[in-house]
Amino acid sequence: MRAYTPKDNVQAKAYYTDRFYVSPQVPKQKVESDEIFAVDLEAIKAKFEVSDAFIQVGQMVVYIKAEDNYSVLELMRDELEYTQLSEMSAIDWLAKDNTFEVFYQMLSMNKRKRIRIKMVINNGQAVNSVEKLFRCADWSEREMFDMFGIEANNHPFMKRILMPYDWQGHPLLKTYPLEGDEFAAWYEVDKIFGKEARDVIGPELRDTSRVDRYDSTRFGRLGHEVPKGTEITGDEPVTEQNYQEDGGVFLIKKFDKKSSVVIDDPQR
Amino acid sequence: MAQVKNRLTPFFENITFDRDDNELILNFGPQHPSAHGQLRLMLHLQQEQIVKAHPDVGYLHRGMEKMAENMIYNEFMPTTDRMDYIASSSNNYGFALAVEKLIGLEVPRRAKVIRMMLLEINRLMSHLFWLATTALDIGAMTVFLFAFREREYLMDIIEGYCGARLTHAAIRIGGVPLDLQDGFIAQLKDFLDKLPQNIKDYEDLLDTNRIWLMRMEEVGTISTEMALSWGCTGPMLRASGVAWDIRKEEPYELYDEVEFEVPFSDKGDNFARYRVYMEEMRQTARILYQTIDMYRETEKNSQTELMAHSPKYISASKMDIMTQNYSLMQHFVLVTQGMRPPVGEVYVATESPKGELGFFINSQGGPYPYRLKLRAPSFWHTGILTDLLPGHYIPDVVSIIGTTNIVFGEVDR
């Protein structure tokens, strides 16, 4: 039986974490600790529902309701002098609670302050486009759609931007496979030669960082070099590797493999 | 308008057209030499005039954000080189600074000075490259050769420092890996002493050049509102009347200790951008002179530390790793498993040669960033072509793309 791997997050994971490891937190400050942010937050709170707000690494983070995003950004641009939308995108929390977190990174040049407006949306829910307020959202929202599949209502051209128009899937989702799924290795073999040829050709190598130490065509076989294309039998002679830096390295004047001893017994 | 048979417009008697007008759709790129990379522009033309422009990007998309989510933090550093490959140290720096802010690290002063030197050399390289390619697009071959010659000297200096000409990876999280090599300062000083004359040479060739002025003045005018709305930053924004430079306004490293001015113009056209670039080169040289003095000062005060001391996140020095058992263990864990920054979020913007380069990192306490968003200035400087090009003529497209200074490693990421 194959080992079960969770399918809702197929990204690289730490292979070892100490049982008692507790990650520290980036400290959060109260919004009241900064005069300018406090005023801004009051202005937003007066009109809209704010579920959470704090300052982290010098920038205020404000959580708003997803329906309010257009009006909040309009208020910020017209009344609070946040004239530029530096960046917007989403964070995939589907594995945790089936939601996305969308953030808008705002910049006020007059106040020299940056605010991050955040909102949580459900899987499949569309956001209101802010393209009418900030033209740059035209491309950012397309990128967000391309990468996460989050659509923006009232967007003039809701098409993919970086990936090809006919692409299947949204690459930045945590469910998006890194090397194709288990069938991907056979896609091209099946298509070109038919399923009968599977045994002859074998699966496609999809792990780009894989190094086969017996592959004499593409890799150097360090220490076991043979001419290119040689049939590998497994009993090729070992090539001596004796590299020495000029003048020796730290602590070692001259390293000679033949005269050095490998201690097998750890206790000696 | 129905087709009328005359000598100028061809008459096709057996063909009916979908559209009954003279609009022509021209595909500019993705392999056009003056598109400065893989930009495909779909231009709707009315004779020679553009009525609608549709930039199509993504031909160099490598999924860097996805790669970042599956790499330990130090592993991602060389990948950032491939964003804005004209000035790659500035990308390294943006990423390193973001992670340092996340883990709350203070970098030693000497490393800060070296970083500033690298950043400003990169700015000069980028601006010289911009001048060379834009001038070449417009037909000024001499300027191209001059500027590339100077850029070559800078690349030699950088090569001496980190061994690479384009993909430097010269900055580490927590500092810089190496001290300046022998002769770095002398070479840099030599170069800087000649630079004013060089800049004057370019200006003599271009400033009053009739062709250059015709292609530049009153072409590609971006209003302040449009620049703000499209998220323009860097020289693009400064040429449109907003004197906003992150080095000045939100100083990082030691930029608050050096004296420099922020050149800006309120014209917003190609020529304004050209002037801003030229002035910035002079200011950069000024900063570099000051960093040389700062470096000498650190030598005098024997501040030799190059990497921050933080055993939890940063490997110890080579000497310690080779002699101290605990340092070796730490180093082994940091290389194989990677550092684990605290849980939290950070957005850090730096002034790269092209504009505001931002790194947004969401860390969940693991060795891989949970989400990393790269805010590359060129992305929106390409987007603005949608609104900027209509009304212009085909030759203007080349000069406008030139002055927007877009690099596709950064647009597509």
Report how far apart the termini of chain A are.
43 Å
Count of individual beta strands of chain A: 8
Order of helices and strands of chain A, N to C? EHEEHEHEEEHEHH
Order of helices and strands of chain B: EEEHHHHHHHHHHHHHEEEHHHH
Largest interface: A-B, 48 and 58 residues
Q: Strand content of the residues of chain B, in percent?
A: 5-15%
CATH topology call of the domain at 28-153 in chain A: Beta Polymerase, domain 2
CATH structural architecture of the domain at 28-153 in chain A: 2-Layer Sandwich
Q: Unreliable runs of chain A, pLDDT <50, ≥5 residues?
A: none
**Radius of gyration of chain A from the CA trace?**
28 Å
**Count of alpha/pi helices of chain A:** 6
- Helix percentage range of chain B: 40-55%
Quote the CATH topology of chain B.
Cytochrome-c3 Hydrogenase, chain B
Category by helix and strand content of chain B: mainly alpha
What would you say this structure looks like, in words?
The complex is a heterodimer of chains A (268) and B (413). Chain A has 268 residues and is of the alpha/beta class. Among the domains of chain A are: 126 residues, Beta Polymerase, domain 2 (2-Layer Sandwich), CATH 3.30.460; 55 residues, no CATH class. Chain A has a six-stranded mixed sheet. A two-stranded parallel ribbon of chain A has the order 7-8. The mean pLDDT of chain A is 85. By secondary structure, chain B is mainly α. Chain B has one domain: Orthogonal Bundle (Cytochrome-c3 Hydrogenase, chain B). In chain B, 49% of the residues lie in helices and 11% in strands. Chain B is built from 17 helices and six strands. Chain B has a three-stranded antiparallel sheet with strand order 1-2-3. Chain B has a three-stranded antiparallel sheet with strand order 4-5-6. In chain B, a hairpin with a 2-residue loop joins strand 2 and strand 3. In chain B, helix 3 runs antiparallel to helix 4 and helix 4 runs antiparallel to helix 5. The longest helix of chain B has 31 residues. Chain B starts with 22 loop residues before the first strand and ends with a helix. The mean pLDDT of chain B is 89.
